[in-house]
Structures are given as C-alpha cells and as structure tokens.
Amino acid sequence: MSDLANLTQTMEDAFKKVFTNYMNSWHMNETKAEKVLSDRLAAENFNNVVWYLMVMIGMFSFIIVAILVSTVKSKRREHSDDPYHRYIEEDWTAKLKNQILIMENPMAN
C-alpha cells in the first residue's frame, strides 16, 4: 500500500513540476505590449466594480422580491365579497354536491 501512496505522491510532484514549468514559459513568451497590459490590469483596483455589481444585483433582487410579495398579498386578500367570486364558489360547491349525491345513489337516476 505504501508503494501505491509513494507512486501517487511521485506522480503529483511530476505533474506539478510540468504545470509550473508550462505556466512560467507561457509568461516568458509575452510581448512587451502584453506585459504592459497585464501589469496595468494587475495594478487596477476592481473593488469598485465589485461593489457596483453587488449594489445593482441587490437593487434588482429587492425589486423582484417586492413585486412577488405584493402579488402574493393581493392574491391572498382576494375580494371574497365580490359577487362574481361568490357565484363561482357557490356554483362549484353546488355541482360538487350534485356529483356526490349522484355517486351515492346511482339507482335513483
């Protein structure tokens, strides 16, 4: 078992060395313009961009949540005194009662 662990460690070290050499050689192949650009980008502070994105996403989320909450509240407070609403409710309950009575007494029809 120790040989397998040793082989795994040896393979990991070899892959790390190959990857590190590749990445270092990749940076060495940069032109001067690319190096100036990468140095400039590294020097810039992107904290303001992050804050801006966080504020925009937060405002958007707040608006969406407010719309959803208001919609749910309005659906919950449906106008139960509305005559049309009462008609539908009474119509459905009457039909349901009729169907139950028909199912209980199939011979009466």
TrEMBL record:
It is found in: Apical cell membrane; Cell membrane. GO terms for biological process: potassium ion export across plasma membrane; regulation of heart rate by cardiac conduction; regulation of ventricular cardiac muscle cell membrane repolarization. Keywords: Cell membrane, Ion channel, Ion transport, Membrane, Potassium, Potassium channel, Potassium transport, Transmembrane, Transmembrane helix, Transport, Voltage-gated channel. GO terms for molecular function: delayed rectifier potassium channel activity; potassium channel regulator activity; transmembrane transporter binding; voltage-gated potassium channel activity involved in ventricular cardiac muscle cell action potential repolarization. GO terms for cellular component: apical plasma membrane; voltage-gated potassium channel complex. This is Potassium voltage-gated channel subfamily E member 2. The keyword Ion transport applies. The chain crosses the membrane at residues 49-69. Belongs to the potassium channel KCNE family. It holds the Pfam family ISK_Channel. InterPro entries: K_chnl_KCNE, K_chnl_volt-dep_bsu_KCNE2. It is a single-pass membrane protein; Single-pass type I membrane protein.
